[in-house]
Every structure is written in structure tokens, then in C-alpha cells.
Specification:
Shape: globular
CATH topology: Rossmann fold
Number of strands: 7
Largest sheet: 7 strands, mixed
Strand order of the largest sheet: 3-2-1-4-5-7-6
CATH superfamily: Vaccinia Virus protein VP39
Radius of gyration: 16 Å
Number of helices: 8
CATH architecture: 3-Layer(aba) Sandwich
């Protein structure tokens, strides 16, 4: 479990076994649509288009998107999260795949000595401690383990300059005050900049409060 003094601790601490049991119907079924006005279809379509056998998922949550991605049974899936509750819950849900759970913080170099054909990072960036220059470390760490032909894809909730509803703005403020989010200054331009620092090709689609992204062709490490 992550140290409580780590800046990233608050962004992952809420994921208790109880919350994970309620996550799909409440967070995906209600909050995503009602608060952020992001239907599940574009998030799921992003997975179905880009996921491959030999997949890395950073912050898999309950495994909801992987489970519904149409990835064939037995596919090689590695899940990374600093919270062991998340890893246990997602591994159980994804038991029909060949799952490798790794307890690690994506803001630090990943303890992985292989590459992946795809990498998912859905609804994680807004939980990482800011500013976006710090969050860019996570993108670089993922790019380091994505194959030259692989794709990093996912989604994140943008900050105060995004197209939030009245309710969305209030939830955004509340989540940032309690530390579950750290994204008030996150923007589409900032997201593009940090993705392009580690990948040559970046595509971003804005859906109300969220940015849905794909990043291809990881740039080599500059030494």
C-alpha cells in the first residue's frame, strides 16, 4: 500500500473493497453520465478499438472496461495500481484472462522488464498529483514499456476551464478540496503537451467534461 505521506496517496485511497463493489453502478452508471455527462459508449469504444493481447492497464478500477472490450479469453493482461484492493478486485473480475497484477505507482519508473502492445489509462490522470508537468512523468513511464507499434489510450476529467455543467463544477471543486482529484488546472492543451512529449502521434476527443485520447509511436528516451 502507498505511504500516506506520498503526494499521490489521496488520489487512490478511496478505493476500498466497499467502493469497488459499488463502483460500476454508481460511478460508471450514474456519476459519469449525470455529473461529467460522459456516456460509457465512447470510453468503451476507445478500449475496443485499441486494446491488444499483451495489454497494460494502469489504474484498472474494477476492470469494467477491459472486461467489456471484447479482448479474447486467455489474453495477456497486466494491471498496475498502488492500491492492493484494486488489484485484487480487478484480478477476480478479469479471471478469464491471463492477468498479472503489479502493485506500483505510475509516477515512478515501473518495475516491468517487457513491452506491451497496448496500454490503458482511463480516469487516472485527474487523480494524480499536479501540476501537469509532474503528471507527465506517468506518461513517460508508460511510454517506456509500450512497444513501437503500441498505443496508449484512455480518458480523464479536465479542470476548471472545461465544459462542465453546474453540477460538474461543484463536484469538481469538492473532489479537489478533499484530494480525490488534483486537476483544477488540467486542460486539453496541457494534456496534449504531455502526451506529445512521449509520443509522436496524439489524438484527443473532448466529450463534455472529459478528454478521450490515443497516443501512438512512443518517443525514445532522451539520455
Amino acid at each position: 500500500m502507498m505511504d500516506r505521506d506520498d503526494p499521490a496517496y489521496r488520489g487512490q485511497a478511496d478505493y476500498t473493497p466497499l467502493l469497488l463493489d459499488l463502483y460500476d453502478p454508481i460511478v460508471i452508471g450514474v456519476v459519469a453520465g449525470l455529473v461529467w455527462r460522459v456516456p460509457g459508449e465512447p470510453l468503451l469504444a476507445n478500449y475496443r478499438e485499441n486494446i491488444r493481447d499483451g495489454h497494460l492497464d494502469v489504474g484498472p478500477g474494477t476492470g469494467y472496461l477491459i472486461e467489456r472490450s471484447r479482448l479474447p479469453d486467455g489474453s495477456d493482461v497486466t494491471i498496475v495500481d498502488p492500491n492492493p484492493n484494486v488489484l485484487r478486485h480487478a484480478a477476480r473480475k478479469l479471471a478469464r484472462f491471463d492477468v498479472t497484477p503489479i502493485e506500483a505507482d505510475v509516477l515512478k519508473p515501473l518495475p516491468i522488464d517487457r513491452t506491451f502492445e497496448s496500454a490503458g489509462m482511463s480516469m487516472v490522470i485527474h487523480c494524480l498529483p499536479g501540476p501537469m508537468s509532474r503528471k507527465a512523468l506517468a506518461i513517460r513511464n508508460i511510454a517506456d514499456v509500450v512497444s513501437p507499434a503500441g498505443t496508449l489510450f484512455g480518458a480523464t476529467i479536465l479542470g476548471r476551464r472545461a465544459d462542465h455543467s453546474w453540477l460538474g463544477r461543484r463536484v469538481l471543486t469538492a473532489f479537489n478540496k478533499r484530494g480525490a482529484f488534483d486537476n483544477l488546472d488540467d486542460s486539453e492543451a496541457g494534456l496534449r503537451e504531455m502526451l506529445e512529449a512521449s509520443f509522436e502521434q496524439v489524438d484527443i476527443q473532448i466529450v463534455r467534461s472529459a478528454a478521450i485520447f490515443q497516443a501512438k509511436r512512443p518517443r525514445p528516451i532522451v539520455t
